[in-house]
Amino acid sequence: MPKVGMEPVRRKALVDAAMRVIGDHGSLTVTMSEIAKEAGVSPALAHHYFGSKEQLLIETVRVHLQRLRDSVVTALRAARTPREKLSAVIRVSFQADQFAPETIAAWLAFYAEAQRSEETRRFLVIYARRLHSNLVANLKALCPVGDAERIAEGAAAMIDGLYIRQSLRSAPISTEASIALTEDYLTAHLNALEG
Amino acid sequence: MPKVGMEPVRRKALVDAAMRVIGDHGSLTVTMSEIAKEAGVSPALAHHYFGSKEQLLIETVRVHLQRLRDSVVTALRAARTPREKLSAVIRVSFQADQFAPETIAAWLAFYAEAQRSEETRRFLVIYARRLHSNLVANLKALCPVGDAERIAEGAAAMIDGLYIRQSLRSAPISTEASIALTEDYLTAHLNALEG
DNA sequence: TATTATTGATTGACTGATCAATCAATAAAA
DNA sequence: TTTTATTGATTGATCAGTCAATCAATAATA
Questions:
Q1: Which of A20, A129, A171, B177 is a good FRET partner for A14, with 20 to 30 A between their CA atoms?
Q2: C-alpha distances in Å from residue B38, one per residue of A95, A150, B8
Q3: What is the pLDDT of residues B19-56, one digit of tens each?
């Protein structure tokens, strides 16, 4: 065989290239040629390994969400109290690599794609549920379940909203300011319940 | 068939058709043929009146935002106190037609398109600024300017976030629940400042 | 060691489909 | 007749996907 065992190398290179191209482009309307060129291989090879453009894009979304998930798991392990864990979830959502313009553009593109691709939608629903349940699980330790659900709903919406607003680059909000806004939301509501 | 004075009729029909097709499709990746067919005319006529697909789509975004703007203006006029005006802004953001699945899909598509089309981006930035300034203007009557800016930022993010989460149709939130969440956000923060 | 068979990796060239855009032609009104 | 409305037919570009052919590394064989 030639350089045997190229498959995993190429698959990773193509997925990474797809992320970059999608980010640049700000949309999933990218060509296999662009992705392949970015990865330094021929378009034919991309088809050889992924079968179709859709499969390559789906794999890209999957890997992207997997990475985010890993970050969350690590951050949660490092935090001790429920309140710290809540902060950890927020911090990860806005950490540097998630907040890079290309990453934000890619997220937006994934959301749009979810309207058409059932599989992409499934991945994003899983992400949304995970975010929600991570929040609820820790809020429950601090307030009644009903309130926990409601506050989690609001916090998740705020996180996603801060994201989408970043994508317009009109009034850029810093990572710290985004974290502070979401933290304030939690604090204000938890205090309101105690008071 | 040529009845004279068809231009405004056709333009409106095509823009409305574009909205429907985009909503169905959940993306701006729609063809002139689809739009024209939906409007009951030939693709050639669409080109005749709009010159290009991009211009038709831009006009569609423009009309869409214009309608939202009109709703806001009307609602603001009907409200008296600053607090009522804040509620009016929130209510309009989630009113029935804005919350229809196709409308949400279209919004999402516009956000994604803004990554590529400078003109679409300009329109959305104007929308974002208007929402922000409507909120700030009325918050200023209830709290210090600095806090008003911060609270407006959070409320706007929450509104957009509730939108984007609706697009996934995973845990659908009712109009009332969305309004309640945003209202709670305002109330909690305003109370926190007074207390 | 030299030869050969085998096979994964890789690509250039091609195909078929799709689509935006153009244009020439026609029909109705002014 | 001149202008406006309208369309069918066509063009040119872009792309996803296919395929036959080539390359290079290994392993079996002589």
A1: A129
A2: 44, 41, 17
A3: 999 988 888 889 999 999 999 999 999 999 999 999 99
The number of domains in chain B is: 1
Confidence of residue B170 (pLDDT cuts 50, 70, 90): confident
Q: Which candidate in A165, A174, A176, A189 is best for mutational testing of the B interface (most B CBs within 10 A)?
A: A165
Would you call B65 an interface residue with chain A, using a CB distance cutoff of 8 Å?
A: no
Place of tokens 């300034």: B133
Residues 31-90 of A with CB under 7 A from strand C: 41-45, 48
Residue type, B106: A
Asked if B102 contacts B24 with a C-beta cutoff of 8 angstroms, the reply is yes
pLDDT at A11: 93
Strands (E) in chain B, as ranges, are none
Indicate whether B13 belongs to any domain: no
CATH number at residue B151: 1.10.357.10
Residue B31 lies in a domain: no
Strand C contacted by B16 CB (< 7 A): no
Interface test with A, best of B115, B150, B187, B193 (most A CBs within 10 A): B115
Task: Residue A65: give the domain boundaries.
Answer: 61-194
DSSP state of B42: -
- The answer to whether residue A152 is domain-embedded is yes
pLDDT tens for B1-27 read: 456 788 899 999 999 999 999 988 888
Residue carrying structure tokens 């040529």: B2
Q: Do B157 and A158 touch (CB under 8 A)?
A: yes
Record: contact B111-A164, CB cut-off 8 A? yes
Residue % of chain A over a pLDDT of 90: 70
Interface of A with B in 140-179 (CB under 8 A): 150, 153-154, 156-165, 167-171, 173, 177
Asked if residue B1 belongs to a domain, the reply is no
Average pLDDT over residues A81-90: 97
